[in-house]
Amino acid sequence: xxxxxxxxxxxxxxxxxxxxxxxxxxxxxxxxxxxxxxxxxxxxxxxxxxxxxxxxxxxxxxxxxxxxxxxxxxxxxxxxxxxxxxxxxxxxxxxxxxxxxxxxxxxxxxxxxxxx
Length: 116
Prior knowledge:
- This protein has one domain.
- It is built from 5 helices and no strands.
- It has helices at residues 3-27, 36-40, 43-49, 55-81, 89-115.
- The longest helix has 27 residues, at 55-81.
- The protein starts with a helix and ends with a helix.
């Protein structure tokens, strides 16, 4: 294994660990909310909308998305470090499922909040 593979594997492992750490907080409904609708709101708008937004639904969305990201980066780290080259098909399936879920739940969030 060359030095580039080791360095990339270490960087990807750190990213997987950070995603896993954030995932562990979102499972318990703690930590900052890092979803697009929440991030792009201003501070005043966020405080005003806090009563209307379902915080548990936001954390549920983040839990699923960051669990998928942890799996993706963990799989890539194993791929970088293993001498046996793992097939990448499961990785692509996870990526597609996470993207579909994130887009679908974001659309659901916007439609729900427009009605209110």
